[in-house]
Amino acid sequence: MNFSTCKKCNRLITKTFRSICDECIQKEEKNYTLVRDYLIDNPGASVYDVCEGTGVDERDIELLIKSGRLERCGVKCAYKCGMCDTLIETGVVCEKCKQAVSKKVGSIKKEVEKNKPPEPVKPPPEVPKSKDSDGRFHRLAKK
User: Fold this and answer.
1) Which of 39, 92, 100, 127 has its CA 20 to 30 A from that of 58?
2) Which residue in 93, 42, 33 sits closest to 69, CA to CA?
3) What backbone torsions phi and psi does residue 6 show, to the nearest 5 degrees?
4) pLDDT tens across 30-72, in order?
5) 3-state secondary structure of 45
6) 55 in the Ramachandran plot: left (φ > 0), alpha (ψ -120 to 50) or beta?
7) How far is residue 62's CA from residue 95's CA, in Å, rounded to a whole number?
C-alpha cells in the first residue's frame, strides 16, 4: 500500500487518485453546498459577502469559483482579478489587465526582434572529395 498526506489537513492517507482525505472531501462538499445555496439566494454577491454569509474561508470560495463548479450549476460570483483586485466574474484577470499584458508581450516581442543577432555568415563551399580504392578520402586539387 502507498501512503500520502492530505493536501488540506496533512493527515496520513492511503494514496488514491484524490490528494485529500475523506473528511476534507466531505468538508469541501458541505462548503460547496453552502456557497451554492447562498449564491442562488443572493445572485451577484462578492466573495467577501459569501464569506461573511456562509462562514466558508475566502480561499475555499475562490477555489470553488476558479474550478468552475459554481458556474456549471448556473451560479455566478464576483471575485478579485489576479493582478489588480478588481472584481470579475470570469477568467483569472480583468479585461484591463489582459490588455496591459498583451501590450507588454507585444513590446517585448518587438524588442527581441530588434535585438536579434544578424544572420550568421555561410561558410565557403567545401572542396570536393573523392574516395580512393581503399575507402579513404582525398582532396581533389583545384584546377
Assistant:
1) 100
2) 33
3) -65, 135
4) 999 998 888 888 877 777 888 899 999 888 887 887 777 777 6
5) coil
6) left
7) 19
Distance between alpha carbon 25 and the CA centroid of its chain, in Å? 23
Q: What integer pLDDT is reported at residue 136 of this predicted model?
A: 64
Query: C-alpha 48: how far from its chain's center?
Result: 24
* pTM listed for this prediction: 0.53
The C-alpha cell 455566478 sits at 76
Strand, coil or helix: 96:
helix
Q: Which of these, 90, 85, 31, 94, lies nearest to 65 by C-alpha position? A: 90
How far is residue 63 CA from its own chain's centroid? 14
Give the other-Cβ count within 10 Å of 141's Cβ: 6
Classify 108 in phi/psi space as left (phi over 0), alpha (psi -120 to 50) or beta: alpha
Residue 61's nearest CA partner among 40, 77, 44 is: 77
Residues in the chain, overall count: 143
Q: How far apart are CA 52 and CA 103, in angstroms?
A: 38
And the C-alpha cell for 143?
584546377
